[in-house]
Structures are given as structure tokens and as C-alpha cells.
Design goal:
The complex is a heterotrimer. By secondary structure, chain B is mostly helical. Chain B contains 13 helices and 1 strand; from the N terminus they run ααβααααααααααα. The mean pLDDT of chain C is 84. Classes of the chains: A alpha/beta, B mainly alpha, C mainly alpha.
Chain lengths: 181, 302, 608
């Protein structure tokens, strides 16, 4: 038997390769950015050639794509969807709104920084980012996964109290089930 | 019955079915992409998908039935595979359990997986799953009728109920049954897209309407098992059909050629079809396919 | 003497049980338990012996034939298990003595029917069985009058048909001996053949709920207590099958009247299809099972009607099997009713968490009903299909296939609607059924499992009973099935293969990421990110097969019941008219007499 660590490393490389080359995307079409998803997926830019395809439910998905500003109401649904996904899972923040609020930075009902509430692995800058940028973002995510650095799901588990605290500040009528892993 | 030989040939057959099924599904994605003027994923993409699903670090289930549902399906597929002749040249390697079962048994064996799936989907508590299952079962009532009509016509005409017997008929006469019993063949062929649940009969797991229906609560290793099963079962269905109507195959090359040609029918049909509602699908199956099935029965009776 | 004594003992014990229940409930339950144990013990140890005596110029003869003892096994086993099941199930009800009196009388009546070697005693026991079952149908439940009247009217049609046949047979042959009738049947004139056999067939078809005489069945099965319905559908309806088998084989197949056999088979197939369609749309679990019973009895009629060796074998095998799996299913329905008090799909859900043993027994029964491997249902289905194939019934087999595919729909509906789906708080205090109710279900599911791989255990009895019907040397093997063209299936290989692959993958899927596999509640579902609140329930139970209904509703419009109802209304109005004649006024009657006399006088005058 080879060294346990060594063999684990090899397994990790293989598994990470599989993970990075097959990304099932749950596109959470919140803001105006949702309109960029169809061209990304269809024949003009064809994201499927990188193994990126849509998933119907959070249970099957790997990547949660937050496309644009997030109203406080939809934050609750995003959190729920994210918590239902299976580990390892990744989040891509899409557009300026998810980084600093973008043009909605002073709005009363949108959040400004997405990674205060859920761990974001990759941001895609722009208002709004073109499909090339989206694919570039996915490519960055793939690199991170291969390197084992896309560990948002791990951070979420470890810093659950921090995230929960922030979430509860925004969502007042908290009726969500507990995060169960 | 030599257990060890069965173990060896059975696992080789299963791996073959898995690889071929996976590649066909990859090809389907590639062809779909090319038709839509896209590049499409590499044809080995489905292997990566399954690998990823199996290497998920967590998975959830809602109870025992959901836990065993994928197994139920894959056990069905592999058992069915063992009873289907892969080659028609009498080679003993791919014999498996070919001579220990017959077509009626296979018809019933092939639906066991659906029951497991239905129960697993039912236990998740997701209403979409149950709705998907009811649609799937209703559609099954639709396509089974022309399919069985075709089989009954052949079985009575050639006085055998085994797949191996029907293969023998074709090997000895030198004509494929699709040529000597064209009506039965058309009826069965029209039922094939329903079996694959490809468009236009894909309302069972429509992603946009039902959130992928029965499998909407399955993720991680469960979904991985289901995709594995899907590949094996696709191969099972194609091989069974090729054995019955297209004279089987004398070597693996011919088998791949024939199954692929057959597989293109539901795939290409699906590419240019919108989606049927459930009752439209059943009415479709009980229309022309049944008409051809009746013609096939009449031909067999004469 | 020993033959008739078993029946007299049952009747006597029934009266004792009645008295015991009047004295003390516990004592009565002990009496019921005793006979439940004693019945199979006595039946399987005693030595059969014929017995006959003369009364009023008629010879009454008793004794099991090799054919009837097959059904007696079913009656004894199912009777004993349902009696055991009844003890906890009926515990909360009143008038238990009356219930068990009738229960035991119908068991005794059934055994009497199977024992009768002449038509008169057959008729007597038939009536005992009918009356006792009628009294249980109206024992409890809703709308007992309507249901009871329906059941009684149809039973009366059957009984009068049988009585007429007996009178005619006695007139023609001078004896009421059954085997004498079968032996001399070939010598009858064509009209006598058709008349007597059709009358007998009508009598038996009523009990086995063959179309168009099935109308009583759904309500009667639903209305009686579930413990009795298990026996009702499992064994009592098989008395109709018993008689139907005799008529179909001894009279039709063996004397060359194939046409009537074919007609019976088609009737059976149509029954199977339509009853299955109706079962799909039921919203009450008991009604669903009742319609399913009618459909299954239709299959049996098909097997008997085509009358080939495989067909009869299939019919007899399915008759026994149906007793087992429908027994389990009605018991499961009873267990659910006992624990939750509900039987409607809209009120039930998620019981798998609370009643796992009931669920797995019902699952085994459903798999057997649907005809899937690795259980014994496959064998009965396989035999029927092979029989139809080798006798070249091209279109009959399609009907049967349609019916058994549509049966998957209600099978799933039953399991999903009751046991699966989203869990709700209102089942939190539901408990698993009492042990005495579980034991019969579990025993019967083990029976189904064993028969799935080793049907030879039953084929042994079936082949010996088929020799009575004129099929000599029926070949059977322990776990290999062979059709007439020499095609075989090896059940051991099939089942072992399935189980081994299942077990291997079970280990794999359980071990992979074992520590990270979590079980979550049924409200933790992917619902577009919306958490499901405690007061919400998304269980899918309304309009379950709406698309299927849209497809087949053109056929379902025509119900035989509508015809019967309009017939009954017509009769009612007809006699309503007659009631106007009988005004109750003496002067009107005097007028009638005068008119009658005048007519008589005129007619008489012209004749003279």
C-alpha cells in the first residue's frame, strides 16, 4: 500500500478533475444578469463544451449562479437553495451588484456584498458581464477547483455562525430549517 | 451453470453496456449540439458527470425507499442485461443467462426498475416527483401496447417466446424480422422514443415544468447511480430491439453499428419535436402505432 | 363421517362463540383464537372420507375431490389468518358475537360447498355462505341498506339461476349428483347443454364478480369490515371461480363447446380491463382494492375460459395467489383504518414512517399483484401470457396486457397515497398495528416470497387437482416454468441474479460517503428555494391520474351500473303505474270485478 497521503492526493486530483469538468449550474436568475445566461448556454457561446450545463434542482447542482442584484426577499431563497445543494458546491457572483451593490448600492431592499451572507468562490465583474466574461469566470472557477482552492462550502460550514448572524440581520421572519451538515 | 464464468462474463458485459451506453449518450449530446449549431461537450462528458456525482462529498436521502431506489433500478438493468443475447454467433462468452429466460419475463423485468424509482421518488415528498411518476406510468400504458402487439405478433408467428429463438429464426432464414414483419417493426419502432423518454415524450422529467420530475430530489451518489443505470438500460433496450428485429449482430462492431443506427431514430426525432402533453402522448401511441400493431397481428394471424 | 363433522363442528363452534361473546368479550376472543388454530391443524391432519345420506328421496353426498381440496387449502389458511386478524381489528366494535357467528358460518359454508358432491347440498351451503356474507356486509359501514339490497339482489339472481339449473338437471338425469352430471353432459341435447351450463355459469359468475354481474362487489367489499373483506375477496369470491372452473372445463372445454369458453375468456378480459381502469381512479383505498379484485378475478376467468392446460394452471395458481396478496392488501387497509380511522387518499400520507411492517407487507403484495419478479405474481402472469400465446389469442393477450400495465397505476397510487409522500404532523401519534394483525400479513408475505422462487410447492397440488378436470400428467418443476413451445424460465437464476446485484449495489451505495449521507425530512425538498412551513403540505393526492382520465374518459362514460339503475327505475315506474290500479278503495275493486265478469261473460257468450 502506498503512502496514504500520496494516494489521497492522486484521488483528489482525479476527483477534482471530474468536478471541474462537469459543472451543473443552478442559475438563480435574480437580476437583469439572467438575460446573459441564454446566450452563454446557446449556440453563440456554447458553455456546454466546457461541461457546463443547467440543473433543474439544487440537489443536482454544483454551481449556484447569482445573476445580479439580490433583493432581501430573494436572499432567503438563495440561502435555502444553497443549503440544499450537495457538497462540494460553488457560488459565482455575477455582475457588480453582487460585489458592492453596483447601481443599487443605496437601495433600501437589496444587499450590497453577497459574500457577507454566503461564501462566494468567483466574482464576475461588469454591469453586466458579457458571455465571454461569464465563461472566463467559469474557467477561473475550474482552475480553483482543480487546485482545490474553491472551498466556499467548507468556509460556510466552519463560519456558519458568522453567516447566520449576517443573514438574520437581513431576514427578520426567520423560519428556515437548520443547515443539516 | 458455472458461477465464476458467469461472474466474469457478466461483469464484462455490464462494463461493455455501461461504456457503450455512456458513449451513446455523449454522442447524443454532441449531435444535439451540432444540430443546434454548437460545438457541444466532448463525447466522454457523461463519464465525467458520473465521476463527479460519485465523488460528491455529501448526499441526502429522505428515507429507506429513496436510498434503495437507484439500486432497484440498476439491479433491474443488469439482471435484464444478463438475459439478453449480445451476439448471435453462438459465442459462449456473452451467453450469460440468455437461455434461462424469455421475452414475457423480460417485459416484466424491465418495469421493476420503474417501480423502484416510483417508490423512491414518492418517498422524497416532492410533489413534482410524484406528478412525474404518474405521468411516466400513464405514458408507459401508452407505449407498452404497440410494443407488446409487435412482440406478440412475432412470438406467435415464430412459435417461440425467447429472444434467442427469435434470433435463431433470423439467422437461419437470413432475413431480418423488420423486413419480414414490417408492420410489427413500425409499431415497435414508434414505441421506442417513449421508452427512452426522449422528446416529444419527455414530459416525465421536464426540467422547466416539473424540475426534472422523479429525480428532482436525487443528488450525489444517488443521481450518479441513476445515470449509470440509464446508460446500461439504454444499451439493454437497444440490444433487445436489435436482437428481435434486426437480426442481432455477429460481432461487437456490427452490434455497435446497428444499435447506433437504431439509437439515432429517437434522438433525431426528438431533436425536431416539441413536447407532447401526457394525454397527447398516450393518444399518439394508441393511434398510428396501435394501427400498425393490429396490422402486424393480422399479418401474423394470416 | 369425518368430512361432514368438520362443517358441523364449525357451525356448532360458531354458535358457542356467539354465546361466549354474550357472556364475556375475552372468552369470545379465546374461542375465536382456538378455532383459528384448530381449523388448519384439523384440516391438514384428518383423513378424507366420503359420506352420504338420504333425505326425502335425495342423496346428499360429501367428500373432497382432488380439485376442491385445492380451494379448501386456501379457505382454511385464509380463514384462520383472517380470524386471528379479526381479534384485534374488531375489538372496539359491538355485536361481536353476531359478527363471528356469521364469519364462522361463511367459512363453514365455503368448506361445505367444496365438500358437496351433489347439487342440493351445494345449493344449501351456497345459500349459507351468501346469507352469512350478506349479514356481514350490512353489519357496519355506511349506506348499508342500499349496499345490502344490491348484494342481495345479485346473489338472488345467482341463487335462482342455480336453483333452476338444479331442478332442470334433476328432471333430465334423475339425480343431482355432480360428477354424474359431468359424465352424462355430453349426451344432453344442445338446448339442455346451453341452458344448464349458462344457468350454472350465471350463478358462479355473480360470486366471482364477473362483468356484467359485478355491480354489487365494490360496495360490498368496501362496506364489510376489512378482516372479513380479506376472506370475502380472497376466498369467498373463489367459490365462484371453483364453480366456474368446473363449468368451463368440464362442460365447455371437455365437450367441445369451445365457443362458450371463448366468450367467458373475453368477458373476463373486458372485466379485467374495465375494473382496472376504475381502480385507477378510486379515491378510497378499500374501493381501489375492491375494483382491483374484480380485475384479478377477470384474469382467472380468462385462464379458465381458454381452457388449455397452461391456462387452467395459470387460473388456479392466480386464484390461490390472489387469496394471499389481496388478503394482505385488505389487511393492510384494515390496519391503516384501525390506526388512523381514515381510508381516503386525501387524508392519508407518509405512513411508512409509522407502520413500516405494514408497508413492507403491502409492498410485497403489490409487487406480486403487479406481476413483477422476484415475486410469485410473475409466475401467474407468465402462465397466462404463455397460455394465450400458445393458443393464439392475438387480441385477448393485448387486452390482458393493457389491464396489467394499467394495474401499475393503481399499485403506485396505493403505495404512494398511503405510505409515501410528505409527512404530516397528524400522523405523529399513529402506531404500528398490533402484533396479531401483523402476524398474518407477514406470514402471507413470506408465502408470496417463497412461491416466487419455488412455485412447485403449489404446482404439486394444482397438478393433482387438474387431473380431476381431465388434464392428466400435468408436468411441473420446482422452480422452472415451461411453456408449450418448450421455452423455459429459470426462476432461481432470475431471482438470485436480481438479489445478488441488488445486494452488491446496496453495499456500495451505503458505504460510499457513508458518514456524509444524511437523512432529511420530507419537508426539506427542493421547492424553488422556498422553505415549506409547518402548516403547509405539498402532498399530491387530488386528481392523481388526470391525464389518463382525459384519455380514457370516452370509454368510462358507459357504465353498466347506469344501465341497471335506469332498468331499476323503469321497473319502479312500471309498478308505480300498477299501484294506481290498486287504489285501496273497495268500490274500485268492485268495479274491476264487474268489468272482469262482463268481459268473461261476453267472451264466453261469443265462444258458445
Amino acid at each position: 500500500m502506498v503512502n496514504d497521503k500520496e494516494s489521497q492526493k492522486i484521488v483528489d486530483i482525479i476527483q477534482n478533475f471530474a468536478r471541474q469538468s462537469s459543472l451543473f449550474v443552478l442559475a438563480y436568475g435574480t437580476g437583469c444578469g439572467a438575460i446573459e445566461i441564454p446566450p452563454t448556454m446557446t449556440s453563440r457561446y456554447d458553455a456546454e463544451r466546457f461541461g457546463i450545463r443547467g440543473a433543474a434542482t439544487p440537489r443536482q447542482a454544483d454551481v449556484l449562479l447569482i445573476t445580479g442584484y439580490l433583493a432581501t426577499k430573494s436572499l432567503k431563497r438563495v440561502i435555502r437553495a444553497y443549503e440544499q445543494m450537495q457538497n462540494p458546491k460553488y457560488i459565482i457572483g455575477f455582475g457588480s451588484c453582487t460585489i458592492n451593490g453596483g447601481m443599487y448600492w443605496d437601495s433600501y431592499n437589496t444587499i450590497n456584498r453577497l459574500d457577507m451572507y454566503i461564501p462566494v468562490d468567483v466574482y464576475i465583474n461588469g454591469c453586466m458581464p458579457r458571455p465571454e466574461a461569464v465563461i472566463a469566470g467559469f474557467a477561473k472557477l475550474q482552475k480553483l477547483i482543480q487546485a482545490g482552492k474553491a472551498d466556499g462550502w467548507d468556509r460556510y460550514q466552519k463560519n456558519l455562525e458568522f453567516y447566520r448572524g449576517n443573514q438574520k440581520k437581513i431576514i427578520h421572519n426567520w423560519v428556515m430549517p437548520d443547515y443539516n451538515w | 451453470m458455472d458461477i465464476w464464468k458467469l461472474l466474469l462474463t457478466g461483469s464484462v458485459t455490464t462494463v461493455l453496456a455501461f461504456v457503450v451506453g455512456m458513449l451513446y449518450m455523449g454522442l447524443r449530446r454532441k449531435i444535439t449540439a451540432r444540430v443546434q449549431n454548437r460545438v457541444g461537450p466532448p463525447i466522454y462528458q457523461n463519464f465525467l458527470d458520473v465521476m463527479k456525482l460519485w465523488s460528491k462529498k455529501s448526499s441526502i436521502n429522505h428515507g429507506f425507499m429513496q436510498h434503495v431506489a437507484p439500486l432497484w433500478m440498476i439491479a433491474t438493468s443488469i439482471t435484464t442485461l444478463m438475459f439478453i443475447p449480445i451476439l448471435n454467433n453462438g459465442s459462449t462468452f456473452f451467453t450469460n443467462l440468455t437461455f434461462e429466460g424469455d421475452l414475457i419475463m423480460l417485459l416484466y423485468l424491465m418495469v421493476v426498475g420503474s417501480l423502484g424509482m416510483a417508490l423512491g421518488a414518492g418517498q422524497t415528498g416532492n410533489p413534482n416527483s410524484a406528478i412525474g411518476v404518474t405521468r411516466g406510468l400513464t405514458q408507459m400504458v401508452g407505449f407498452e401496447i404497440p410494443w407488446v402487439m409487435a412482440l406478440v405478433a412475432l412470438m406467435i408467428q415464430h412459435r417461440t417466446t425467447t429472444v434467442a429463438g427469435l434470433l435463431d429464426v433470423q439467422v437461419q432464414s437470413g432475413t431480418w424480422l423488420m423486413l419480414s414483419s414490417p408492420f410489427a417493426f413500425i409499431a415497435a419502432l414508434l414505441a421506442i422514443p417513449g421508452m427512452f423518454r426522449y422528446s416529444p415524450f419527455d414530459i416525465v422529467g421536464a426540467p422547466a415544468e416539473l424540475a426534472s420530475g422523479p429525480i428532482s430530489e436525487f443528488g450525489g451518489k444517488y443521481l450518479g447511480t441513476m445515470m449509470t443505470n440509464g446508460a446500461i438500460f439504454a444499451f439493454v433496450k437497444l440490444t433487445l430491439f436489435v436482437d428481435i428485429f434486426m437480426g442481432g449482430a455477429s460481432n461487437l462492431g456490427f452490434l455497435l453499428l446497428k444499435t447506433f443506427a437504431l439509437y439515432m431514430f429517437p434522438v433525431l426525432w426528438g431533436l425536431v419535436s416539441p413536447r407532447f402533453r401526457t394525454e397527447q402522448a398516450v393518444r399518439f401511441f394508441w393511434g398510428w402505432p396501435v394501427f400498425f400493431g393490429v396490422l402486424g397481428l393480422i399479418q401474423a394471424a394470416i | 363421517m369425518s368430512n361432514i363433522i368438520i362443517i358441523l363442528a364449525i357451525f356448532g363452534w360458531a354458535i358457542l362463540t356467539y354465546i361466549a361473546f354474550r357472556l364475556n368479550k375475552t372468552l369470545g376472543n379465546i374461542f375465536v383464537g382456538l378455532i383459528a388454530v384448530a381449523l388448519p391443524v384439523y384440516y391438514f391432519t384428518y383423513v378424507p372420507e366420503d359420506y352420504s345420506f338420504q333425505v326425502m328421496g335425495l342423496t346428499l353426498q360429501f367428500g373432497f375431490t382432488s380439485f376442491s381440496s385445492l380451494f379448501a387449502i386456501l379457505v382454511v389458511i385464509l380463514g384462520a389468518l383472517t380470524l386471528l386478524y379479526s381479534i384485534p381489528y374488531m375489538n372496539k366494535k359491538d355485536r361481536l358475537g353476531w359478527f363471528y357467528l356469521n364469519f364462522l358460518f361463511s367459512i363453514g359454508g365455503m368448506l361445505g360447498i367444496l365438500m358437496s358432491k351433489d347439487f342440493v347440498s351445494l345449493f344449501i351451503f351456497w345459500e349459507i355462505m351468501t346469507w352469512s356474507s350478506y349479514l356481514i356486509v350490512i353489519f357496519s359501514g355506511k349506506k348499508v341498506n342500499k349496499v345490502g339490497v344490491k348484494y342481495m339482489v345479485y346473489s338472488a339472481i345467482g341463487a335462482y339461476a342455480m336453483l333452476m339449473a338444479i331442478v332442470l338437471i334433476n328432471k333430465w338425469s334423475g339425480t343431482t349428483n355432480i360428477s354424474h352430471f359431468f359424465e352424462t353432459f355430453a349426451d344432453y341435447s344442445n338446448g339442455a347443454k346451453i341452458l344448464s351450463s349458462l344457468l350454472l355459469l350465471t350463478a358462479f359468475a355473480v360470486k366471482s364478480a364477473l362483468m356484467p354481474l359485478h355491480v354489487w362487489a365494490p360496495n360490498a367489499y368496501t362496506n364489510s369490515p376489512m378482516s372479513y373483506t380479506s376472506l370475502f375477496s380472497g376466498a369467498l369470491s373463489k367459490m365462484g371461480i371453483y364453480g366456474m372452473a368446473l363449468v368451463a372445463i368440464m362442460l365447455y372445454t371437455n365437450t367441445g363447446m369451445k365457443f362458450f369458453g371463448e366468450a367467458l375468456a373475453w368477458l373476463g378480459a373486458i372485466t379485467a380491463v374495465l375494473a382496472t381502469f376504475w381502480a385507477v381512479f378510486q379515491t378510497d383505498i378499500r374501493k381501489l382494492l375492491a375494483y382491483s379484485s374484480i380485475g384479478q378475478l377477470g384474469y382467472i376467468a380468462v385462464g379458465l375460459g381458454i381452457g388449455t392446460e397452461l391456462g387452467v394452471m395459470a387460473a388456479l395458481f392466480l386464484a390461490l395467489l390472489h387469496g394471499l396478496f389481496k388478503g394482505i392488501l385488505f389487511m393492510a387497509a384494515g390496519a391503516i383504518e384501525y390506526r388512523t380511522g381514515k381510508t381516503d387518499f386525501s387524508e392519508l400520507r407518509g405512513l411508512i414512517w409509522k407502520m413500516p411492517v405494514t408497508f413492507f407487507s403491502a409492498l410485497v403484495a403489490i409487487i406480486a399483484l403487479a406481476g413483477m419478479p422476484p415475486l410469485s405474481g410473475l409466475i401467474s402472469k407468465w402462465l397466462i401470457y404463455e397460455a394465450l400465446l400458445s393458443s393464439e389469442h392475438y387480441f385477448l393477450i393485448i387486452l390482458i396486457f393493457l389491464s396489467s400495465t394499467a394495474a401499475f397505476l393503481y399499485c403506485f397510487h396505493f403505495l404512494y397515497g398511503v405510505f409515501l409522500g410528505q409527512r404530516e404532523d397528524d400522523i405523529e401519534d399513529v402506531k404500528e398495528a398490533p402484533a396479531l394483525m401483523l402476524v398474518p400479513m407477514v406470514l402471507m408475505s413470506f408465502g408470496l416470497l417463497a412461491l416466487g422462487t419455488f412455485p412447485g410447492l403449489i404446482f404439486k397440488h394444482i397438478s393433482s387437482s387438474m387431473s380431476y378436470l381431465g388434464f392428466n400428467d400435468v408436468t411441473w418443476e420446482m422452480s422452472v416454468l415451461t411453456n408449450e413451445w418448450g421455452n423455459k424460465i429459470y426462476l432461481t437464476h432470475l431471482n438470485t441474479m436480481f438479489m445478488v446485484v441488488f445486494a452488491v449495489f446496496f453495499v456500495i451505495i451505503t458505504l460510499v460517503a457513508r458518514k456524509k449521507t444524511r437523512r432529511v425530512g420530507t419537508k426539506d425538498i427542493a421547492n424553488a428555494g422556498e422553505p415549506i412551513l409547518a402548516e403547509d403540505n405539498y402532498h399530491f393526492s387530488q386528481d392523481f391520474y388526470k391525464p389518463f382520465w382525459r384519455v380514457i374518459s370516452p370509454v368510462m362514460k358507459y357504465r353498466i351500473e347506469t344501465f341497471y339503475n335506469s332498468f331499476a327505475n323503469g321497473i319502479g315506474e312500471f309498478f308505480q303505474f300498477f299501484r294506481r290500479v290498486y287504489t285501496g278503495n273497495g268500490q274500485t275493486y268492485a268495479l274491476y270485478v264487474v268489468i272482469f265478469l262482463t268481459i268473461l261473460f261476453i267472451v264466453g257468450a261469443t265462444l258458445i
